[in-house]
Amino acid sequence: MDISRHVWETKYRSAGPGATETTIMDTWRRVARALAAVEPTDPLCWEGRFYRILQGYKFLPGGRIQAGAGTDHDVTLFNCFVMGAVEDSIPGIFRALQEAAGRIYDLAYDLQLKGCTTFRPNPVTGMVLSEDNAGVEARHCCVLEREAD
Predict the structure, then answer these.
(1) Domain extents for the chain?
(2) Distance, CA of 78 to CA of 65 (rounded, Å)
(3) Is the pTM of this model over 0.85?
(4) Which among 18, 26, 16 has a CA at the least distance from the CA of 51?
């Protein structure tokens, strides 16, 4: 399997119950329909316009949009976050990063996620994340392979 198909199938293709995506065009249609649904006038027209700019990879939305728009996943479609003014110095930048990390940690806690994890390669496989864990139902940010003892 080529890498682009693997990425689409594992990251962006909607594969939940009732999902019918078998091609990238199906994904583009799902995304276009979801984006058009919030338009106050003529969503069907907007769906067509959005779909046409997605066709042939003329426009490629951020990963969160491709993975989440039009699915039943409770996720944000924002692909970036805006921070206030940051002091232009190494200490100022690190203070801002520490504050942002604290906010993210608090949000994860509020969502009942299990805190922060340090990602380390598995000494046996060299992998950090594993496809074998894809079906595991857990309230974690991600599922990690266990390190060998």
Answers:
(1) 1-78
(2) 7
(3) no
(4) 26
